[in-house]
Structure formats: structure tokens, C-alpha cells
């Protein structure tokens, strides 16, 4: 965005599961416009203050550090997070010689499985990594939480809202205060505690760090950073084919982006790219950025003209990041970046055929109005260092592949490009940080496994009628790319550095979906209005006055508890406990009649797998431990009730980890011996503190792992 002559972009928030358009439940894309009033000023002030007080901070850190120097066992800890790296697959490819650097780490240091969290969901596990506590103490139980008043979904990790005070001047709405921006994760991250003792950290793209916190170091946020429209990633697709715009979806969740019809007039396509809603206007109209596309069908290329820029596009090749500027009001502009990709172009007897995919519009890291880094100028620095880069929390567009808007080749290229961007940030931090912690999480391993796990199983339901050979090694190749990076990182280490290569969970196949709401209906525990037997997304038509339990998201089951939910009917105490026992008995070991396999190994009572921390009462009541091959169905995850409890999963999203946590441990590689046979992800925070000689706070529930010198 821009105020007067100052630039800055912003956005909003939404959820992290690629389910339905309705699932993108941020406070509205117009928040991008409101946020820009304050973003640039805040970044400039923070930068100025940081420069002014730097000498005092240096002295303070030095004094604090001197008190700890004698206790420290390391000078620097380097953490490479490979999201979703699976130990079984890693062992397979270490044995085949495909992962030489991880093999060397295993032989010269240590390798073990790393217990994940209950539930085994990324935002939950990474929150435990950074805080050293279980979900009952950090307040993150799933991607989504529910509004206890309305039973509607909301993002569990952050809360974003408009300014509480505004002034209307004609058709203009002027914000008079800062917008609401709050991280819902509780408990302190280990890097914040290290900062209190003068130990600085560089934290890059670790999930659940939006909005970024103030601490003695630098941070670039990751999971939950929204796009410019206020979603966690909604693409735009321009097509000449009306059938692609008005598809009759058999599943309503197939709405992960905007589809717009275009036509050729006088040799060019003239249209506009929708941006955020303009909340400075009373009508809240969507901002539009006009562009033209002049095709050369013979050469399979086109000339894109947008915002004064001219870019040559070739079929099936990504453009570089293109800066997008939306005019919100006189002197106020909204800035974003996106990449353009021609999926197809041809001249046919029926007329010209063209498909143009535009990635979600990312916050421009060089012009951030809504905070995506700490200090605020850190993302600007990185953009000057390596160029524009993806800032969206879920940067790889899994839903565009799920819907067939892009193909596998385009998805792989997008994933590798964004992995390359992150590598540049990481190695820059590694070279410039002589002490403290350097931590960076890489998403490519997770995203490739979600979308390509089907290629490891010829008979996966998603493979019916499709080629199963071309991308059979896509996951292995991503592991090899990660292994090469680990090798280059080891070359940068010094004798007193500790390297940890970790993942938050492993992976399993997702072949069949389980709709817990349908099962609850069949047991008389979830009631619908009238004679209805099914309901739409987010419990449309549920009779809460007769409903005792419900499910949505990927974690498990909630009890409709009196005094907690707005229309709760289950009494606290014995009735609550008895209902939990009933559901556990009914679902644990449930068999899928069509396959003859156990679909849920165990239903876990959170009181038995968590430590009954201060946030336990508001979270999940029962965690679903799905067996290998099973997961919450797409419909069940959005609060729908359907005819069948079990359904085939035929989507490209064919691998998952939201299952029995015992089936999907992560990995822990280290360049030193970790002398513990059963490490867990929440043990890493207290271990890192101890290695630097910093006392472990009493609230941490993780153990200190013994690490050899």
C-alpha cells in the first residue's frame, strides 16, 4: 500500500485447510486497505528506534551473555526443519544411497524418530517445538477453532479485525485506530527466552509465527500469513472455456479460487485481476487491476501488460514475481506480488483457447503494511537481498492442483522455486550469524507428500485412469534436494555448532475419508432439523438443542458442553465424561465394511494425552487416531453430514499426517549424539535453552535431552 508517497501492502487471515471457499473465514480482504494506514509508519518508527537503541541493546546483551558463557555447551544451534519428512521413507532412501548427507549425520551423530503431538497437525506440532509445551498450554489444537457462540469456524492461530473506530466522510470510511492483530498461540517461544539472556536468533518461516513477535533477533513469519485478498491462498484462473467457469462440482469444496471467463477482442484479452475489498469505501467494492494479454498462438507465448509493466509469458512457464498496485483512494495504493502461468493456448476451429493461472496475490515483502517480519524492515532487507519472494503462509498452491487448474509439473516447479527462495534466506542467515540460533523451516517435503503420495501406491483411489509412472519419484527427488541442502549447511558449521534436522511429523497414505458427523448422527448424538438426513457446510441445519457432539477440522470431536458452547446441552462432570467414554468405545477400532480394515485405531481423551493446562477446557475433547490410509473426510472436516461414513479420497491431496500420532513420528538428526531413545518434539525447546546455559522455565513440559559434547 501507499500513504502519500510511502508504500506498503497488507492483508488478512483465514484458515489453513484447503477445503471450501466458505472456509476462508478472515475478517475481509478490505483489512488490507485499513492496515496500510498504520503499517508503514510502524515499520519506519521500529527501524528508527532499533537504530537509536542498538548500542544500549548491545551492551545489555553482552552483560547478560557474560553471565551465561561458562554454562553454555554450544555457541550456535542450527535447526533445519523439513516439514513432514517421514522416517520410514528417509530410511528407505538412505539405504538406497539417495540421501548421503543425512546418512552421514546418522553415522557420525545421531538419528531417531521424534514423537509428534496429539493431534499430529502441523500448527500444533510446531507450536510445541517452539514453546516446549503440549497443546493444553499453548492453545493450538487444530488449524481451525470454532466460535463458541455460532459454531462457525475461525482461524485458531491468529485473530485479525478492523479498527474499532471509524469515521464516515461521504462514501469514504476512515479508520481512526489500529486494526486488531493478535497471535492466539500462548506460552513463550524459546527464542524469546534466549533473547532475555542476550542470545540472538534468526527465525525463518517457522509455522505459527504470524503476527511476528518482538524479541532479540530477526523473524520472517510463515503459516497463517494471508494473501492480499484475506485468504490463505485463493488463485485466479482466466479461461475462454465457459465450462471451466461454471463447473457442476460434485463436491462443493472445489472452490479454492476465482474463475473468470475471458474472450479475445481485436487480437487481445482485456480483463482485470481482482484484489482486496476496498474497506475505505462504503460499498466495500473489490479493487480491480486492469491488464491485457496479447497472444501469439503460433509461438505459444503472450505479452502481458499490467500496471505499466510488460512481461513476456510462455506456455507452461512461470513469470517472475510481478508487482501489483491497486488504487484504493487518492494517494493510497495496495501493493502485492503474483506470478502468471499460461496453462494452455491454442487456436482451434471453435475459436481461441487459453487458460491463465495467477497465483494467490502475496504480500509484497518489500512493502509490508501488515507485519510479516520482525523487525518490520527485515522482509524489506530480504527482498533487496534475493528479490521478491513468496510470503503467503501456505505458499504452494495445493488447491489449484486439487482442482486441476494447474498440473503436476506446474505444482512441482512452484514448490521448487519457493524452496529455492527459502534456501537463499537460510544460507544468508547462516553465514551472517556467528552465535545464537538459526532456524528455518522448509515446506516442500510436506507439500509434495500431500499431493504426490498417490504415486507411491499404484492402486490409490486418486490414481484411477491416470498415469502412475511419470511422478513416481517426485517425493524422493524432493528428499534428495533437502539432503543436498543439509550437506551444504554442514559445510558452514564450526566445531562448537550443533545441527538439528527435524520434522514435525511423518506421513501416511490418505485413501479413505471418515465422516465423524455422519457417525454421530447415526448414533443419535448429532441431530438435524425436521426430517433432514444431511446438512451443508459448517453445520447448516443442525439442531443444537438435541446435539450432544460434533466434529469439524482435522483433529477430532467436540462435546456440546453446557456453559461452554452457546447451545450446549451436555452437563459438565459425569455426563460429560460418560459421553466421552461412549464415543471412545464406539469409534476406537471401528471397521470400514467396504475394505474390512480398521479405520480408527483409538480415540484419545485429551485429559489423558495432555497435561490439563490452562487452555485445555476450550480445545478438542477427543482426538481421532485414524489408521494408515484414513483421515477425516473432506465433508466431515467442514461440518457436513452426508449419507456415508466412509468415502474414497480421489483428490490429488493423497497423503496426510492427521492420523494416530503414533503412526507418524517425525525425525531428529543431529551432528552430535542425542542420548535419549524416545525424544519428542516438545523436548527441543528446553534442550536448546539448556545447551545455551539458560534455565528452563517451570511451565515447560518437555524434557531436556542429553546431548553429547
Describe the protein's architecture and organization:
The chain is an alpha+beta fold and 709 residues long. The protein has three domains: 1-70 and 225-392, no CATH class; 76-140 and 185-211 and 412-507 and 666-709, Alkaline Phosphatase, subunit A (3-Layer(aba) Sandwich), CATH 3.40.720; 510-663, no CATH class. Helix content is 26%, strand content 26%. It has an eight-stranded mixed β-sheet with strand order 4-38-27-3-26-11-12-25, with helices on both faces.
Name its key features.
3 domains; five-stranded antiparallel β-sheet; globular; disordered N terminus; about 700 residues; eight-stranded mixed β-sheet; 38 strands; Alkaline Phosphatase, subunit A; alpha+beta
The gross shape turns out to be globular
Strand order of the largest sheet: 4-38-27-3-26-11-12-25
What composes the largest sheet? 8 strands, mixed
Poorly predicted tracts of residues? 1-28, 248-254
Number of domains: 3
Structural class: alpha+beta
Number of strands: 38
Helical percentage: 25-40%
Please outline what is shown here.
The chain has 709 residues and is of the alpha+beta class. The protein is built from 17 helices and 38 strands. The chain starts with a strand and ends in an 18-residue tail after the last helix.
Amino acid at each position: 500500500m501507499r500513504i502519500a508517497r510511502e508504500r506498503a501492502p497488507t492483508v488478512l487471515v483465514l484458515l489453513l485447510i484447503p477445503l471450501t471457499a466458505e472456509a476462508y473465514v478472515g475478517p475481509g480482504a478490505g483489512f488490507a486497505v485499513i492496515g496500510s494506514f498504520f503499517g508503514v509508519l510502524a515499520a519506519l518508527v521500529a527501524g528508527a528506534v532499533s537504530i537509536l537503541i542498538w548500542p544500549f541493546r548491545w551492551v545489555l546483551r553482552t552483560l547478560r551473555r557474560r553471565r551465561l558463557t561458562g554454562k553454555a555447551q554450544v555457541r550456535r544451534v542450527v535447526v533445519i526443519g523439513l516439514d513432514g519428512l517421514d522416517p520410514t521413507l528417509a530410511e528407505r532412501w538412505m539405504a538406497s544411497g539417495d540421501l548421503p548427507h543425512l546418512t552421514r549425520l546418522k553415522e557420525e551423530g545421531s538419528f531417531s524418530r521424534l514423537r509428534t503431538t496429539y493431534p499430529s497437525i502441523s500448527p500444533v506440532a510446531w507450536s510445541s517445538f517452539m514453546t516446549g509445551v503440549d497443546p493444553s498450554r499453548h492453545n493450538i489444537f487444530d488449524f481451525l477453532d470454532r466460535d463458541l457462540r455460532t459454531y462457525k469456524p475461525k482461524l485458531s492461530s491468529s485473530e485479525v479485525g478492523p479498527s474499532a473506530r471509524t469515521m464516515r466522510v461521504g462514501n469514504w470510511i476512515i479508520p481512526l485506530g489500529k486494526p486488531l492483530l493478535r497471535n492466539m498461540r500462548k506460552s513463550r517461544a524459546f527464542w524469546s527466552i534466549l533473547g532475555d539472556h542476550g542470545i540472538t536468533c534468526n527465525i525463518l518461516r517457522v509455522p505459527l509465527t504470524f503476527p511476528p513477535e518482538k524479541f532479540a533477533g530477526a523473524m520472517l513469519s510463515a503459516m497463517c500469513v494471508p494473501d492480499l485478498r484475506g485468504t490463505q491462498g485463493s488463485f485466479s484462473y482466466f479461461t475462454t472455456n465457459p465450462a471451466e467457469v461454471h463447473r457442476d462440482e460434485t463436491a462443493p469444496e472445489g472452490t479454492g479460487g476465482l474463475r473468470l471467463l475471458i474472450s479475445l477482442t481485436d487480437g487481445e484479452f482485456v480483463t482485470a485481476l481482482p484484489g482486496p475489498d476496498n474497506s475505505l469505501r462504503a460499498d466495500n467494492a473489490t479493487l480491480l487491476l486492469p491488464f491485457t494479454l496479447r497472444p501469439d498462438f503460433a509461438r505459444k507465448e503472450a505479452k502481458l501488460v499490467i500496471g505499466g509493466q510488460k512481461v513476456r509469458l510462455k506456455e507452461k512457464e512461470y513469470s517472475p514475481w510481478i508487482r501489483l498496485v491497486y488504487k484504493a483512494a487518492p494517494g493510497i495504493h495496495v501493493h502485492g506480488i503474483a506470478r502468471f502461468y499460461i496453462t494452455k493456448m491454442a487456436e482451434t476451429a471453435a475459436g481461441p483457447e487459453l487458460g491463465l493461472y495467477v497465483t494467490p496475490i502475496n504480500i509484497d515483502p518489500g512493502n509490508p503494511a501488515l507485519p510479516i517480519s520482525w523487525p518490520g524492515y527485515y522482509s524489506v532487507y530480504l527482498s533487496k537481498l534475493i528479490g521478491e519472494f513468496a510470503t503467503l503462509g501456505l505458499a504452494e498452491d495445493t488447491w489449484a492442483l486439487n482442482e486441476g487448474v494447474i498440473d503436476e509439473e506446474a505444482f512441482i516447479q512452484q514448490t521448487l522455486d519457493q524452496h529455492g527462495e527459502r534456501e537463499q534466506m537460510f544460507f544468508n542467515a547462516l553465514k551472517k550469524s556467528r552465535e545464537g540460533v538459526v532456524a528455518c523451516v522448509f515446506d516442500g517435503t510436506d507439500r509434495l507428500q500431500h499431493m504426490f503420495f498417490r504415486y507411491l501406491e499404484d492402486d490409490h483411489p486418486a490414481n484411477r485412469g491416470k498415469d502412475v509412472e511419470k511422478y513416481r519419484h517426485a517425493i524422493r527427488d524432493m528428499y534428495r534436494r533437502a539432503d543436498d541442502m543439509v550437506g551444504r549447511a554442514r559445510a558452514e558449521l564450526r566445531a562448537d555448532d550443533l545441527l538439528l534436522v527435524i520434522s514435525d511429523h511423518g506421513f501416511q497414505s490418505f485413501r479413505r475419508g471418515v465422516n465423524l458427523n455422519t457417525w454421530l448422527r447415526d448414533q443419535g448424538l448429532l441431530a438435524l432439523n425436521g426430517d433432514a438426513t444431511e446438512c451443508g457446510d459448517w453445520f447448516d441445519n443442525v439442531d443444537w438443542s438435541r446435539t450432544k457432539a460434533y466434529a469439524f477440522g482435522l483433529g477430532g470431536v467436540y462435546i456440546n458442553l453446557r456453559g461452554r458452547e452457546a447451545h450446549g446441552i451436555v452437563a459438565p462432570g459425569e455426563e460429560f465424561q460418560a459421553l466421552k467414554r461412549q464415543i471412545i468405545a464406539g469409534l476406537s477400532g471401528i471397521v470400514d465394511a467396504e475394505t474390512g480394515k480398521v479405520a480408527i485405531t483409538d480415540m484419545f481423551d485429551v485429559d489423558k494425552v495432555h497435561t490439563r493446562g490452562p487452555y485445555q477446557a476450550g480445545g478438542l475433547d477427543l482426538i481421532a487416531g485414524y489408521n494408515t490410509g484414513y483421515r477425516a473426510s473432506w465433508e466431515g472436516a467442514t461440518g457436513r453430514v452426508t449419507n456415508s461414513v466412509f468415502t474414497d479420497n480421489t483428490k490429488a491431496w493423497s497423503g496426510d499426517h492427521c492420523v494416530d500420532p503414533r503412526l507418524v513420528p517425525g525425525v531428529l538428526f543431529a551432528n552430535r549424539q542425542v542420548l535419549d531413545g524416545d525424544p519428542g518434539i516438545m523436548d527441543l525447546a528446553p534442550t536448546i535453552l539448556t545447551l545455551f546455559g539458560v534455565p528452563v522455565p517451570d511451565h515447560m513440559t518437555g524434557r531436556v535431552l542429553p546431548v553429547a559434547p
